[in-house]
Amino acid sequence: MMKIITSAQMQALDRRTITEAGIPGKTLMERAGHAVSARLEEVFGSVRGKRVTVLCGKGNNGGDGFVVARLLHRKQAMVHVLAMASVAELTPDAASMYRQFTRVAGTSRTRPYSSTEPVHTLIRGSDLIVDALLGTGLSADVSGRYADAIDAINGAGRPVVAVDLPSGLHADTGKVLGHAVRAAVTVTFGLPKLGLYLNQGIDHAGQVTVADIGIPPSFIDEVDSRTTLVTGSFVQRTLPVRRPSSHKGTFGHAGLIAGSVGKTGAAAMAAQAALRVGAGLVTVAIPSSVNDVLEAKLLEAMTAPMPETKARTFSRNAFERLSAFIAGRTAVAIGPGLSTHPETVELVQSLVKQLAKPAVLDADALNALAGRASLLTECKQPPILTPHPGEMARLEPDATAQSVNADRIGTATRFARERGVFLVLKGARTVIARPDGAVAICPTGNPGMATAGTGDVLTGMTVGLLAQGLPPWEAACVATYLHGYAGDLTAAALGPAGMVAGDVIAQIPHALKACHEG
Ligand SMILES: NC(=O)C1=CN([C@@H]2O[C@H](COP(=O)(O)OP(=O)(O)OC[C@H]3O[C@@H](n4cnc5c(N)ncnc54)[C@H](OP(=O)(O)O)[C@@H]3O)[C@@H](O)[C@H]2O)[C@@H](O)CC1
Ligand SMILES: Nc1ncnc2c1ncn2[C@@H]1O[C@H](COP(=O)(O)OP(=O)(O)O)[C@@H](O)[C@H]1O
Ligand SMILES: [K+]
């Protein structure tokens, strides 16, 4: 896990690194520029012969841009710099980097930015654009020449690499301050900034990587932030180990209470996902008349037919048998495809009240708790809830999906604290909150996952990890990360539009393997 911080915290870290650790600002700037040029080549290949336009603002973000320009020039890119300010107006470090650039590339490679046709033609004719206009020093709405430059970058339709932050994006809120660059790739320095994962920041930042520029770890430890980013190395460290002597009992028995007529697919997908993430055994409790349909879909999972209503959903008469079912499992998930039949809702409420196993509550189990979230405080162990913003809004009085999305971290943290649960608020950049108020953001996943059934896959993966003995926080973070990773592999292979939830299940083993190998 990596702390996610505000611009004020980053500025303080930079200052401490320069004054207390004695690392000159220019050294940090040089490392920042190196990180950007290395990432640029990693994503777009060799720059040799490519036309690269670097737009440099008057602050230190622009200074990083001059470093990038010099490094890419050395690699034989055809670099042009468009400067927003004269050398006299630059910060001292940026001015020094400007001079170093002109020393190696000559002065003809730099020209002042202006809103003229030749300048716009240069931008449009670039193979790549580097946005070093504004970083964490952005202090007000962007207007005038900066706004114009941002519009010119966006209007060019060329791939953009943003230095530290897409210019114009509020580093803390992810809101666009008037105008903001839309980047394909962002390389952010030291620690990730909140705004890259919130609101419009998600669309503007593109693929984000965090570059180490040598901020001392002890300074980072002292930063007060309860918001973290789930990282691949956390997942690698946390994944259950499969010892040579292990057997299927070692990896737990996951139970699913899922399905109703018309919705056996949700139960089947959750079961498959639990198996694919490594659960030793999986059994699905299902209304009796749809049991055969489910059995036909599942080879490795077992099923347990249960008493049903006339509408072919779980009936209240299933209570005793489901209580015994839960008692016999290592962990359970309740919710996928249950329906909102009043009798099923009543049953779910009774089950939740006496829940004493590691558990995931999703979909119709959450709908059963709409307006009754106080029941959660009766659970004997804090469950994991996995709402999408619509389900979240039903759990909170007066909330709407829009109000939830407008403050995803705040909503998730408040609910997790008040109800004493682990909360996975799904959607682009899923937020995971803990009863003690700590929160994590998941960087994996893509819009191809906005397709029926991917939520059931996440539920299955989460219960599968709980069954393998991961504590709820670890299970929620690892499941979310792996789920998004499997989705990213699927999108890379199939494209986002045509992929379906079953394709994501098929990629879980590949995601697991990649994370195990680190
Ligand atoms: N040593 C370090 O600290 C390191 C910092 N690093 C890098 O520095 C970046 C932070 O640099 P920074 O603090 O100089 O701020 P930066 O983002 O370049 O912008 C400030 C300039 O923009 C201006 N400006 C502000 N708002 C504006 C607006 N709306 N519209 C127009 N102009 C506006 C503002 O002008 P002012 O309003 O003050 O007149 C000021 O001149 C950081 O993101 C990272 O990339 C790395 O090299 C690692 C080491
Ligand atoms: N734009 C996106 N970026 C990343 N992940 C997404 C995006 N859209 C949806 N997802 C993920 O896909 C899953 C959808 O779950 P959910 O809404 O419950 O769907 P369903 O009920 O159809 O299974 C969630 O894990 C969510 O985080
Ligand atoms: K920038």
UniProtKB/TrEMBL annotation:
<keyword id="KW-0413">Isomerase</keyword>
<feature type="binding site">
    <location>
        <position position="164"/>
    </location>
    <ligand>
        <name>(6S)-NADPHX</name>
    </ligand>
</feature>
<feature type="binding site">
    <location>
        <begin position="135"/>
        <end position="141"/>
    </location>
    <ligand>
        <name>(6S)-NADPHX</name>
    </ligand>
</feature>
<dbReference type="GO" id="GO:0046872">
    <property type="term" value="F:metal ion binding"/>
</dbReference>
<feature type="binding site">
    <location>
        <position position="131"/>
    </location>
    <ligand>
        <name>K(+)</name>
    </ligand>
</feature>
<keyword id="KW-0521">NADP</keyword>
<dbReference type="GO" id="GO:0046496">
    <property type="term" value="P:nicotinamide nucleotide metabolic process"/>
</dbReference>
<dbReference type="GO" id="GO:0005524">
    <property type="term" value="F:ATP binding"/>
</dbReference>
<comment type="function">
    <text>Bifunctional enzyme that catalyzes the epimerization of the S- and R-forms of NAD(P)HX and the dehydration of the S-form of NAD(P)HX at the expense of ADP, which is converted to AMP. This allows the repair of both epimers of NAD(P)HX, a damaged form of NAD(P)H that is a result of enzymatic or heat-dependent hydration.</text>
</comment>
<feature type="binding site">
    <location>
        <position position="455"/>
    </location>
    <ligand>
        <name>AMP</name>
    </ligand>
</feature>
<dbReference type="GO" id="GO:0110051">
    <property type="term" value="P:metabolite repair"/>
</dbReference>
<feature type="binding site">
    <location>
        <position position="388"/>
    </location>
    <ligand>
        <name>(6S)-NADPHX</name>
    </ligand>
</feature>
<dbReference type="GO" id="GO:0052856">
    <property type="term" value="F:NAD(P)HX epimerase activity"/>
</dbReference>
<keyword id="KW-0547">Nucleotide-binding</keyword>
<dbReference type="InterPro" id="IPR036652">
    <property type="entry name" value="YjeF_N_dom_sf"/>
</dbReference>
<keyword id="KW-0520">NAD</keyword>
<dbReference type="InterPro" id="IPR029056">
    <property type="entry name" value="Ribokinase-like"/>
</dbReference>
<comment type="subunit">
    <text>Homotetramer.</text>
</comment>
<feature type="binding site">
    <location>
        <position position="146"/>
    </location>
    <ligand>
        <name>(6S)-NADPHX</name>
    </ligand>
</feature>
<dbReference type="InterPro" id="IPR004443">
    <property type="entry name" value="YjeF_N_dom"/>
</dbReference>
<keyword id="KW-0511">Multifunctional enzyme</keyword>
<comment type="similarity">
    <text>Belongs to the NnrE/AIBP family.</text>
</comment>
<protein>
    <recommendedName>
        <fullName>Bifunctional NAD(P)H-hydrate repair enzyme</fullName>
        <ecNumber>4.2.1.136</ecNumber>
        <ecNumber>5.1.99.6</ecNumber>
    </recommendedName>
</protein>
<keyword id="KW-0479">Metal-binding</keyword>
<keyword id="KW-0067">ATP-binding</keyword>
<dbReference type="Pfam" id="PF03853">
    <property type="entry name" value="YjeF_N"/>
</dbReference>
<feature type="binding site">
    <location>
        <position position="61"/>
    </location>
    <ligand>
        <name>K(+)</name>
    </ligand>
</feature>
<feature type="domain" description="YjeF C-terminal">
    <location>
        <begin position="231"/>
        <end position="515"/>
    </location>
</feature>
<feature type="binding site">
    <location>
        <begin position="426"/>
        <end position="430"/>
    </location>
    <ligand>
        <name>AMP</name>
    </ligand>
</feature>
<comment type="function">
    <text>Catalyzes the dehydration of the S-form of NAD(P)HX at the expense of ADP, which is converted to AMP. Together with NAD(P)HX epimerase, which catalyzes the epimerization of the S- and R-forms, the enzyme allows the repair of both epimers of NAD(P)HX, a damaged form of NAD(P)H that is a result of enzymatic or heat-dependent hydration.</text>
</comment>
<dbReference type="Pfam" id="PF01256">
    <property type="entry name" value="Carb_kinase"/>
</dbReference>
<feature type="binding site">
    <location>
        <position position="266"/>
    </location>
    <ligand>
        <name>(6S)-NADPHX</name>
    </ligand>
</feature>
<keyword id="KW-0456">Lyase</keyword>
<feature type="binding site">
    <location>
        <begin position="60"/>
        <end position="64"/>
    </location>
    <ligand>
        <name>(6S)-NADPHX</name>
    </ligand>
</feature>
<feature type="binding site">
    <location>
        <position position="456"/>
    </location>
    <ligand>
        <name>(6S)-NADPHX</name>
    </ligand>
</feature>
<dbReference type="GO" id="GO:0052855">
    <property type="term" value="F:ADP-dependent NAD(P)H-hydrate dehydratase activity"/>
</dbReference>
<dbReference type="InterPro" id="IPR000631">
    <property type="entry name" value="CARKD"/>
</dbReference>
<feature type="binding site">
    <location>
        <position position="167"/>
    </location>
    <ligand>
        <name>K(+)</name>
    </ligand>
</feature>
<keyword id="KW-0630">Potassium</keyword>
<dbReference type="InterPro" id="IPR030677">
    <property type="entry name" value="Nnr"/>
</dbReference>
<feature type="domain" description="YjeF N-terminal">
    <location>
        <begin position="10"/>
        <end position="221"/>
    </location>
</feature>
<comment type="similarity">
    <text>In the N-terminal section; belongs to the NnrE/AIBP family.</text>
</comment>
